[in-house]
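Board notes, transcribed. Complex of a protein with uridine-diphosphate-N-acetylglucosamine.
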Amino acid sequence: MGSFIVEGRNSLEGIVDIGGSKNAALPILASTVITGREYIIENIPDIEDVKDMLEILSSMGCSVQFENDIALIDTRGLNTHIVPEKLVRKIRSSIILMGAVLQRTGKVEVAYPGGCEIGLRPIDLHLKGLRKLGVEITEKNGLLIGSVNEPASCDIHLDYPSVGATENIMLFAVGNTGKTTIYNPAREPEITDLQNFLNICGFCVTGAGTGIITIEGKRIENTDTVEYKIISDRIEAGTYLSAAASMKSKIYIRNIEKSHFKSITSIYEDAGCEIRETHGTIVIANNKRIKAIEKITTQPYPGFPTDMQAQVMASMTVADGISIIEETVFDSRLKHVPELQKMGANITTIGRVAVVEGVEKLFSAEVEAKDLRGGAALVIAALGAEGTSKINNIHHIKRGYEKFIYKLQNLGVIITETAR
Ligand code: UD1
C-alpha cells in the first residue's frame, strides 16, 4: 500500500501551486453523462479518485483521455445504466452518478455505498430527493435499482445541507421540465462550480451558494463541445497552510480563491501567522510557535470544513496552549488522534471532541493513515517532528492530493515514497 518517509524538523520555504478541486471535479465528471457530447475540462486534479471516476465513465462506454490536468470526455457512447460495482466500492462518491445516469437513460443500477473510514455515511437524503422527483428506487442484494416513470419537478427541503444529496438532486432535476427548488442545499463553492458547469452545458440553475437553489428543467438540443475550467482546491490549499503554520516557514500558495477558505485563514491569523493575499496567491509566514485556538467546530460551508479538521489539529499539537476541536459533520472522523499520540501529541477525546494541549515538539514514529485528510495530518505532524517518521497506507492520501511528494519537496521537505 506504500509509505512516505519524512524527515522532521523541516522549515518550509518556496512556492506551491494548487490543483483543481477534487470535490468539484468529481460531480462535474459525473454530470458529463447527462447529455451525450464532447467535453474539454481543465484543471482536473491528477489524483486516484479522479482516475477511478474516469475509469467508471470509460467502463460505461464513454471515451476518456486525461493528460496534463485536462480531461477530454465523449459521453455519446454511454451504453449502460449499470455503474460497475467493483469501481463504486473503490470510490464512494460515485453515488452522484445516480442522478446523472437516471436523467440520461431513465434507469440506473448502482451498488449501495457502505460506511467508510470516516463514518456511516447514509444516503437517505439522496434517495428521498430523487423519489420526490419521480424516481422509483428499490434496494436488492446491496444494489440500488432506480427507474423513472413520471419525472416530476417540485420543492425539496433537505433536513441537512448534504453536499452529495444536493448534487444528485441537481443532476437529475436539470433535465426534467418544470421548476425544482431545493431548500437548505449545501452552499459549498463546489456546488457553485457545478451550477456554473451545468449552465455552460445549457441548463438553467440559479442560487448555488445561497439557501435556495432553483432549477428550471429543460431538455438540451445543442450538443456543441463544452469547455470548462474547474475551481482550485481549497482543502489542498488549506493543507499547505496548516503545514506552514506548524513550523518555521514562508510559503507562497498560488492559484487559490481566498474567499473559499476564509474560515481556515482566519484561524491561522488568530494563531499569530502573518497571512497576505495578492492576486490569487497567499503568502503565509511564520517564525514562532503558533498560539492555540480556543475552539473549532466543523460545520457545513461557510463554517469550518470537516475536511480541514485533521490538518488543523496536527498544527495545534505543537501550538502554545489548549485547543478544543469538535467534529460535528461525520461520526467517526478522529481516527488520526491515536496516530498523532504515537508522535507525542497530547490529545484527549470525549466523544467527537478533542482537547489538544500543545507540546513543544513531536517525535518521529511509524504511523498509519486511516483516511485521506487524517493521512495528510500525519504528514504535517511528521514535518515538524524530531527524527524520521514513516507513514503507512498512503493510498488514502493519494486519493486526494496530487503530486504530494513533489510539491512538498519543492518547499524544501525531505520526503520519499517506498512501496511497503
Ligand atoms: C462531501 C465531500 C467530503 C466532505 C463532505 C462534507 C465530495 C466528493 N465529498 O461528502 O469531502 O467531507 O461533503 O463537507 O464532495 N448524510 C446523511 N444522509 C444523506 C447524506 C448525508 O445523513 O443522505 C450525513 C452524512 O452521513 C454526514 C453529513 O450528512 O454525516 C454530511 O454529508 P455530505 O454533506 O453528504 O457529504 P458527502 O457528500 O458524502
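The first strand starts at residue 3 and ends at 7. Residues 372-384 form the longest helix (13 residues).
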